[in-house]
Amino acid sequence: MVPARAPSVHLSQEEIQKLRFKPTVGTIQRSEGAEVRFNCSIDINDISQDLNILWFRNGKEIPDGMQTAVYTQGTVTLLSTISIKSVQRADAGEYHCRLSVSNKIIESNPIIIEVEGLPTFTIQPSDVNITRNTPFTLTCEAVGPPNPVTIEWLHKGKRFAEPTESSSTITIEGTNICEAHNEKGLTVSREAHINIKELPDKVSKVTVVKREANKLLISWTPGHDGFSPLSTCYITVRELLEPGSPTAAHPTYVPPFQYEISNLKAMTWYNMSVSCTNEIGPSPPSAWVQSNTTEGGESFTFLEQLSIMQYFFILLVASLGISSELQAKLQDVMIMRDLLSIGKVLGEGEFGSVMEGHLRKPDGTSEKVAVKTMKLDNFSQREIEEFLNEAACMKDFHHPNVIRLLGVCLEVVSGHFPKPMVVLPFMKYGDLHSFLLLSRLSEEPVYLPTQMLLKFMIDIALGMEYLSGRNFLHRDLAARNCMLRDDMSVCVADFGLSKKIYSGDYYRQGRIAKMPVKWIALESLADRVFTVKSDVWAFGVTMWEIATRGMTPYPGVQNHEIYDYLLEGNRLKQPSDCLDELYDIMFSCWSTDPVDRPDFTQVRKRLESLAGKLPAVSSRGDIIYINTSFPEEEEELPGEAAEGPVLTSSPSCSRQTTDTSVVTAEVHESTDAEDDRYVVVISSGDHAPRSAVDAPPLNHRLLQQDSEETVRDLPTKSLETLLFSTKSLLLIKPAFI
Fold first, then answer.
1. Domain boundary among 272, 305, 338
2. Per the domain annotation, does 1 fall within a domain?
3. Is 655 annotated as a binding residue?
4. For the whole model, what pTM was predicted?
5. Fewer CB in a 10 Å sphere around the end CB: N or C, the chain?
6. Per the record, what is one GO cellular component (predicted)?
């Protein structure tokens, strides 16, 4: 294969055969976050055409090389250098240089980059439900570099086995984790719970929900399944007033947890009891429940005031085995399954996925939605309850800057638990963190004015002000958990860790192993105590993410080092070109004493005051429109080539207010219908250096997510498609660059 961008120059065959790259450095080892530079070079006789050295990593071309040419006594030395400011694991691999001369490919010896850091798990221990005295294994495997990697097992927080080289297996009941150690430090795996299967608990809330002349319909709530799925329940029925009457046992597959007892006598009283079984055996029988059938031809339901639909939902939700409190919260947000159509997967994690969907409305129209589901291959009632609790949190939220719940849907599959699905508004642009990354990851990053960044911060502050006023702690506030609406407003989302405070103003977390440590307040790291002021700390970190357009907080600081780093008085540094007043607001959120931090109302007012000092839109001439059309939305213009916006690398924040930027744009006579089709070019002047800043420059290699973040694949659509809606996005001409 001849690299397309390498022009050819005609040399003699003898000269071509002699062409060789000079010996390379071979193998380079660097610690994660360190700077690395390497190059390759080749001598060529004086030529009249330029040649380009191309770089390849693991066989794929990369655009990172910087080439120079040195002319000495009729010979040209071509030198191409790659410089990585903060090397990450993703940069590791085998690098080659290639040069095309007269259709001959000349390739250098490999340069192997090894990135040393904390161990990375390739296999983590998983939860296991086992029968007593049955052998099982837990496996844990991690890799360097540096190697070797040793594995230590912890049982209920205590080490119980000698370290062994990766990989390692154990067999012991209880809660286990493994630690992977190398010379750089240690990485802790997820917790693995080893549960011994046992008899299920007794069922509860056996209720007769409908009576007829010859039938009784009953429902019940199953007890704990004993770590083994319930398969069958037995309903024991006996006439109440007839001594010696036969006792009948009616088996039924579950779920759902309801059964219609038929072939009964009219106007007769019956005793009923329920027991459910798993692979170990049956649960204890429930207490007897008495009820009677009606006269012939009559029927009576205890839910006559409810619609048939509500009655169906009550039975369906009850079949999940969740708490009665959660059942009551979900009753009025249930959606019929046939109203929801599911499309492609938008994102997927270890325990669930988010899919695109359409929800049919009563008027016949449909709304595009996002559908969150669980992966139910391995699940427990506790996990279902935690999943649905997030939906219950959102049920009562009514604020433009807090994501709203559209409903909960249960997909019933014969012989399986109903599959819970949480239906949310569809956010075309996804989460704020990905938006910020994409705004600067192209070859020419998109300029986001300070006014827009401040608007993002104010929107989040408004949402958090609303939540804190309702005594809710978010506990996982970050740019990744904020969503962008079609109108570019931001709403707070992802309430998987949220808690409502019923007494006092704090919540104590039982364990902190899975918490996002770089967003957690100092007192929460130390004592696992969460308050509204710990959410304020996380908001300060989120502001820093926005100001840096998606950088990972504390670059170069490992997760296990964060607590000591903060305890020594260190905080996130002022981002390059960020307004001093904006950084002062951020910094106030990180006071060591929570009492000294502002509340969300105070933060919001300070941000609004700062935004009010920036230039305002005064005329149509101050508004610039970004091309916001999606390719699939422009089918009516087949003759026009889709052109994306011309992008710039202007900074995300600025502290200078005297110089004026140069703004250029194509000028068209336009109508209102055409206002969403034009693009802008913004080129700013030189920026004054920040002498007090010791944060690194905005470099895309610092964007690698730390271990507490879920690694997400950014969409492959074009940048302009991902960033802007079909409605025009207003940008104010910046007058303070």
1. 305
2. no
3. no
4. 0.46
5. N
6. receptor complex
Which one-letter amino acid corresponds to residue 377?
A: D
Highest mean pLDDT among 357-361, 585-589, 714-718: 585-589
Are 228 and 364 in the same domain? no
What are the backbone dihedrals phi and psi of residue 482, each rounded to the nearest 5 degrees, phi first? -120, 135
Residue 4 lies in a domain: no
Active site residue 505: no
Q: How many Cα atoms within 13 Å fall on the side-chain side of residue 343?
A: 10
Chosen domain end from 274, 305, 336: 305
Is 360 annotated for ligand binding? Answer: no
Cα dist. 186→151, 162, 181, 388, 600 in Å? 9, 16, 4, 34, 37
Tell which residue, 193, 279, 188, has the closest CA to residue 515: 188
Q: What is the distance, to the nearest Å, from the Cα of residue 244 to the centroid of all Cα atoms in its chain? A: 62
**Cα(479)–Cα(664) distance, integer angstroms:** 31
Q: Are residues 225 and 370 in the same domain?
A: no
Give residue-wise pLDDT tens across range 128-151. 888 877 777 788 888 878 878 888
Phi/psi class of residue 192: alpha, beta or left (left: φ > 0; alpha: ψ in -120 to 50)? Answer: beta
Question: Does one domain contain both 591 and 658?
Answer: yes
Same domain, yes or no, for 552 and 687?
yes
Is 287 buried (19+), middle (13-18) or exposed (0-12) by CB count in 10 A? exposed
Cβ neighbours for 231, distance < 8 A, ≥ 6 positions apart: 253, 254, 277, 278, 279
Phi/psi-derived region of residue 26, left when phi > 0, alpha when psi is between -120 and 50, beta in every other case: left
The answer to the question of residue 523 being in a domain is yes
Rounded distance between C-alpha atoms, residue 93 and residue 82, angstroms = 13
The answer as to whether 292 is a domain residue is yes
pLDDT, tens digit, for every residue of 397-441? 889 999 888 888 877 665 566 678 888 888 888 889 988 988 888
Assigned token pair, 515: 């918490």
Please name the helix (run of DSSP H) or strand (run of DSSP E) that holds residue 491, with its range, or none.
Answer: strand 490-492
Q: Which amino acid is residue 568, in one-letter code?
A: E
**Is 45 annotated to bind ligand?**
no
**Higher pLDDT, residue 187 or 83:** 83
pLDDT for residue 737: 29
Active-site choice (91, 127, 431, 476): 476
Total tally of structural domains belonging to the chain: 5
Best-predicted range by mean pLDDT among 374-383, 385-394, 594-603?
A: 594-603
